[in-house]
Amino acid sequence: MLRKKRWLLSLAVFVAFTACSGGQETTGDTENADVVQIEYWQYHFDAKVELMNELIEEFEAENPGIQVKQTTFPYEQFNEKVAAQVPAGKGPDVINLFHGWVPQYVDSGYLQPLPRDAFPHEKIESEFFPLVEAVKLDGEYWSIPTAVRTLALFFNKDLFEEAGLDPNSPPETWDELAEYAVKLTKTDGSNRLEQSGLAWEPGQQGNNWLRDGLTYQAGGRVLSDDRKTVVWGDGPEGLEAFKYWISFPTELGTSKPGFYTDDITAFSTGKAAMNVDGSFRIGTLQEEAPDLHYGIAPLPAQDEKSTSASFWSNGVTAGVDGEKLEASVKFLQFLTSDEVMEKWTDEIGELPAKESVAMQDKYVEDDIYGPFIEQLPYAVSHFSVDEMGERDLIMQAADRVLLEGASPEEAFKELVQKTQVLYDDYWQGKQ
Fold first, then answer.
1. Which candidate among 15, 26, 163, 336 keeps its CA 20 to 30 Å from the CA of 93?
2. Cα 214 from chain centre
3. Which of 238, 272, 259 shows the shortest CA–CA distance to 402?
4. In the prediction, which pLDDT does 3 show?
5. Any bridge partners for residue 196, and if so which?
6. pLDDT digits (tens, 9 = 90+) for 398-418
7. What's the CA angle centered on 168, arms 163 and 173, to 5 degrees?
């Protein structure tokens, strides 16, 4: 009980991959007794709300017996509303969730499994990228995505040229990334950072880059096959990844947490030459930094290739049955159609969740989307039992080194031990 209360409090304040605050409630006409009415919830992000309104109109035209009401909330209020409404039998029929929340939603009894007749497991596993297995628990899929995202390396081509680097040849290995970051760093006479060679922010995508990118690139793993044991520190690979990651703000001197507020601001204003960020950042840069001359490349790799992937997925809440369940399933099938995935990519910037849609030439060969698409076959979507808690532990490990003078070995050992406590807590009492 204490764990669930702590989780609900965490979700109320958690800021995930693409969190954008602000917003409103969107409602539709539900006063028609001749149709089945279902309610769809997502957090408020203008582009997604607008596109969903268009998709709902299209869906209703194709299914005149079903009406969909979209309701949105500011991001920071979303899970709080769910926790208050779903247990009372109110709230959404279909809900949009960050993949890292799904285990706790299942644990809290807020979701029901996707019906196998409508979403056969073999079809999901043959059509969707393997990362969707992050929402498979107890042998069931609990939600299904329209789009997915990966991390890649954003680099400022103008700053590359200023440093004498080829703007068309971004770093491809760990050694090259470190070398480029040093060359792209500028300091003043007091050795204070003026230009960061590599933006570095554990609270943004830095934690995902370390865990799902660098660790796997070094040949390591984070969890056991049954996802109960943290094996991050079982071999030397995890520590190797952590030491490389922490070297940018320490021995290399190329980076600093909070530089120009955060890594996103530093890169978009030209104060950071490189940044590890997600495909969801493209729209923001196009809108807020239209004159920024940048390129995108797959994450520089080591022994293996890997990147972090995430996604928002749609599921059906517990207690939905009868005509509402049938209508909800039809809506989910519509949202995961090839046509909707293409519209979502073109208008939102996220990548199609189905391999056949994503691997079309128009996406693979695109200068912006191509590097993200290229990495999808080997992307890692972490099974998280406490999204905010795991992120905070990585941030604490960074602080132990940067602020408290702990050795990387000591900080990483504590990180692994504390992460295991989260998993032990989650799995306690479960079979």
1. 15
2. 16
3. 259
4. 45
5. 272
6. 999 999 999 999 999 999 999
7. 80
Q: How far apart, in whole angstroms, are the C-alpha atoms of residue 97 and residue 401?
A: 34
Cα 142 from Cα 78, distance rounded (Å): 19
Q: What is the mean pLDDT of the chain?
A: 90
Give the predicted TM-score (pTM) of the model. 0.84
Q: Which long-range contacts (CB under 8 A, 24 or more apart) does 82-91 make?
A: 82/41, 82/110, 83/8, 83/11, 83/108, 86/110, 86/317, 86/318, 89/319, 91/39, 91/41, 91/317
279/349 Cα distance (integer angstroms): 7
Largest CA distance in the chain: 74
Is 252's pLDDT higher than 50?
Answer: yes
Query: pLDDT band for position 394 (50/70/90)?
Result: very high
**Residue 264 is which amino acid?**
I
Q: What amino acid occupies position 71?
A: T
> Do residues 157 and 368 make contact, with C-beta atoms less than 8 angstroms apart?
no
Helix axes 387-402, 237-247, angle to 10 degrees: 60
Q: Residue 88 — pLDDT band, cuts 50, 70, 90?
A: low
pLDDT beyond 80 at 5: no
- Pick 430 or 297 by higher pLDDT: 297
What's the CA gap between 104 and 406, in Å, rounded? 33
Residue 122 has a pLDDT of 97
Tell me the angle at which helices 338-348 and 46-62 cross, rounded to the nearest 10 degrees.
150
Rounded distance, CA 229 to CA 218, Å?
19
The strand pairing partners of 330, in sequence order, are none
